[in-house]
Amino acid sequence: MKRLFSTLLSMLAIISVMAACSNESQSQESADGKITNGKTLVAYYSFTNNCKTIATEMGKQVSCDIVEIQPAEEGLDYAANNYAIGSSLISAIRNNPSSESSYPAIKEVNVDVAQYDNIIIVTPLWWSQMAAPMQTFLFHNGAKMAGKNVGLVASSASSGISSLVADFKRLIPDGKYMNESLWIKSSQVSNASSMISSWLTKIGFANLSISTAVKAIKADVSQAKPSKRQAKNGQVIINEKYDISGKQI
Ligand SMILES: Cc1cc2nc3c(=O)[nH]c(=O)nc-3n(C[C@H](O)[C@H](O)[C@H](O)COP(=O)(O)O)c2cc1C
Hints:
By secondary structure, this protein is an alpha/beta fold.
């Protein structure tokens, strides 16, 4: 009887250990590729301002820092002559993606991606690929995003974004990809606010309820400190939000 009891006890112990292990792996799995409560960076490049609008809208819904990627050479018209410059920049990268010299120079970006837990890339599509200046940023910083939750928002006129998603994964080889990218066509940019909000819900953005709460008390914001938007070295916008009592959230 005693032996039977002790056998039952050890079986129970084994079952509890197995259950604990499976719960742990489940919670690790569900944490993969979702925005968590840590610091969030939104990095965007925009030639005709669609992605700028999208990134700005993202900043209204997510507590984040926003950084703009800018080509070193100013004033280029990437769309002129049937998109000739954009086309040759993309061809150079396609022909030799592993060489630094294939990527167009960008202005120095004053941000340390290592400081962030969640990174959202907002970029236009050029000739079915990721726009060249954003590829340059990721060529230099993608490896530092290993293990971070990385999300992609892409805008095109009409082309599908699967090759651009492949660029994203090539340039951030070890990211924890948010399991759905958001595609906003240029004709849908005016609807970006609701598309972003649905996407954030889908990827399980933990802070969404806080941002929504901020919106819900908008009527009383006269008593709250206004949101601060500071440009740091002309590039990173710190997006701070305050609740009605003036406490930073
Ligand atoms: C050089 C270049 C190439 C483009 N190639 C495509 C394309 O192949 N397919 C497409 O649907 N849109 C293409 N577009 C349109 C942009 O992807 C689209 O207008 C996007 O919303 C622009 O974002 P932005 O305003 O932030 O620059 C191209 C635009 C440029 C400038």
